[in-house]
Amino acid sequence: MIAFSKMVCAFLLVSVFPIFAVAQARTAAGEKHTDEHWLVRLNQELPLLGHRNWIAVVDSAYPLQTSAGIETLETDGEQLDVVRKVLSKVAQATHVRPVIFTDAELKVVPESDARGVSYYRDQLNHMLEQYDSADRQSLPHEQIISRLDDAGKTFHILVLKTRMMIPYTSVFIRLDCGYWTEEQEKRLRERMGK
Predict the structure, then answer these.
(1) Could you tell me if 151 and 48 are in contact, meaning their C-beta atoms sit under 8 angstroms apart?
(2) pLDDT single digits (tens) 119-139
(3) 37-186: CATH homologous superfamily?
(4) Whole-prediction pTM value?
């Protein structure tokens, strides 16, 4: 019996454990290639997202929300880089267009209290200047979170957390229809009312 047990242990060491070691090595190597797993996830979800869905790029202290429709992913990325990539992907999607919300508090956060905020504000403003004022809004942070929470009860929200450690730097993107404007909707409703 002892000899049989030793044979089994020897078999496991020679045959099975190397398989686990190779699998772990592949996983570790795979993780290096999937550092931007969030971008893969965004590419998968974007064709499914539409009018009234949201994508939020948030700072590292942003709370984990519990509404059923809110999915949170850790990007381990830089805030401006993630915002740039998300807006680029949304711009490539013809079925949606972004309506961008930023925290009203960001405008008045002083550099003395949050080192780097001035640079961030300048870079973000430069990045967003291509969007019409109608597609850029600034609201108090709590109002935006409340909107996300309400939307998350019915619609899917993708929250992408970054390494950002400056308050009120989150960028919230509400997706709107890319091929039907608010003016067209207004005219349609007027015709329906007649």
Answers:
(1) no
(2) 999 999 999 999 998 899 999
(3) RbsD-like domain (3.40.1650.10)
(4) 0.80
